[in-house]
Design brief:
Blueprint lengths: L16 E5 L3 H11 L5 E5 L13 E7 L8 H11 E12 L5 H17 L9 H6 L3 E10 L4 H4 E9 L1
Parallel strand pairs: 1-2, 3-4
Antiparallel strand pairs: 4-6, 5-6
Bound molecules: S-adenosylmethionine (SAM).
S-adenosylmethionine binds next to loops.
């Protein structure tokens, strides 16, 4: 959920309500303020993605943006997303991660330990599509590209996936 930056982009006519999950109390407070102005209900959970307190097969859509880089046990969190998603549900993702270009990857790997210290645990070099596939998802659509000339931090993975 973060500070709720994505909330204004949900179509109120197409959703019942949103569960929002994030371990940061400060960001959830900001999300709570934004939610109060929206025409749909947002139920916030100040918790980590590695243990989602929702029933299995209960969620229509999982949305995850610029977060798979930061979750300490990212495979556990992805498996939790898979568990709570209905069999015909979808996960929408927009994430930054590992570049396919060796010269860029070498720098991403080299700088990653320092980067994690100054960025709240964000990894520069996670292979996002491989992690998603390795957690039991089939990727239906994947757009991968640099989003800016700063190649180290801007390789983006955008797409949607469904549980296998
Ligand atoms: C770059 S921010 C992205 C926030 C939001 N998704 C967005 O796109 O605006 C990364 C987020 O990952 C969250 N985060 C860190 N560890 C997490 C965990 N274990 N489970 C879930 N979210 C986590 C942080 O609190 C932060 O809100």
């Amino acid at each position: 959920m973060g500070s709720g930056l994505n909330l204004p982009f949900y179509n109120p006519e197409r959703i019942e309500f949103v569960w929002g999950l994030d371990p940061s109390q400060g960001l959830m407070k900001m999300a709570g303020k934004k939610s109060a102005r929206l025409p749909f209900q947002v139920r916030l959970m100040t918790l980590s993605g590695e243990d989602i307190p929702l029933e299995s097969d209960s969620v229509d859509t999982v949305v995850v943006t610029y977060t798979l880089c930061s979750i300490p046990d990212v495979l556990k969190a992805l498996k939790e997303m898979h568990r709570v998603l209905k069999p015909d549900g979808q996960m929408l993702f927009c994430e930054h991660g590992r570049s396919p270009d060796a010269p860029v990857t070498r720098w991403q790997d080299a700088i990653n330990p320092l980067w994690m210290k100054v960025s709240g645990g964000c990894h520069l070099n996670r292979p996002i599509s491989e992690l998603i596939k390795g957690s039991g998802f089939h990727i239906n659509h994947l757009d991968m590209r640099y989003m800016s000339s700063v190649k180290l931090i801007s390789y983006n993975y955008l797409g949607w996936a469904s549980p296998l």
